[in-house]
Write a structure and sequence with these properties.
The chain has 189 residues and is of the alpha+beta class. It has a single domain (33-172), classed as Glutaredoxin (3-Layer(aba) Sandwich). The protein is globular and about 60 Å long. The model has no long low-confidence stretch (mean pLDDT 96). The protein is built from five helices and ten strands, in the order H-E-E-E-E-H-E-H-E-H-E-E-E-E-H. The chain is 36% helix and 25% strand.
């Protein structure tokens, strides 16, 4: 197929994806929120309640990160670093992992991460949110709303290679072979 014909076909697919995203937003807007408990999490400065992570915002984004053992989670987190100030303007934002605050702080410092992190080690937070399996931790995102003293989870989505939460996959999709055998590494070169 010619380049122009392929580009036209791909433009049609992108319009279909945009229409599907609009339907997904409508479905998301109609969801009945799920009330969650005010979990106690850990930071380098001590324990903090989930409710305190909202700060002066009514919305909170929590990234469920598998921790320092996962190069894919590192890849996603590197991406948040670039958009953190945009996200933090709209909602509170935090990355949660099973690593201790000291391990998180050391790893984040080495990568230049600017966003806040909390540890859910020793709590049921990630498991209760659906981000633990019999094989271990799972990556994803949960969005919470604070309303009348309650914490409501209004949405969540799992992460996986190729998902919508890491632009890199979509850029690599522009190559005829896609990502090929490429996978993220903690260090390059």
């Amino acid at each position: 197929m010619s380049y122009k014909d392929t580009a036209k076909k791909l433009a049609g697919y992108r319009r279909q994806i945009a229409a599907l995203r609009q339907r997904m937003r409508k479905a998301q807007a109609a969801v009945s929120p799920e009330e969650v408990q005010d979990y106690e999490l850990a930071t380098p400065k001590g324990s903090v309640r989930l409710s305190a992570l909202f700060g002066d915002k009514d919305d909170l984004i929590v990234i469920h990160n598998m921790g320092t053992s996962c190069p894919y989670c590192m890849l996603w987190a590197d991406g948040y670093n670039g958009v953190y100030h945009h996200l933090a303007d709209r909602a509170a934002f935090v990355v949660a992992s099973p690593d201790t605050p000291a391990v998180q702080q050391k790893f984040a410092s080495g990568r230049g991460w600017r966003f806040p992190m909390v540890s859910h080690k020793g709590t049921s937070f990630a498991e209760d949110m659906g981000y633990r399996s019999k094989n271990g931790w799972l990556p994803g995102i949960s969005v919470f709303k604070r309303e009348k003293g309650r914490i409501l989870r209004v949405s969540d989505a799992p992460f996986s290679p190729g998902d919508d939460f890491c632009a890199l996959w979509h850029i690599l999709d522009l190559f005829p072979e896609g990502a090929a055998a490429w996978s993220p590494k903690f260090r390059y070169g």
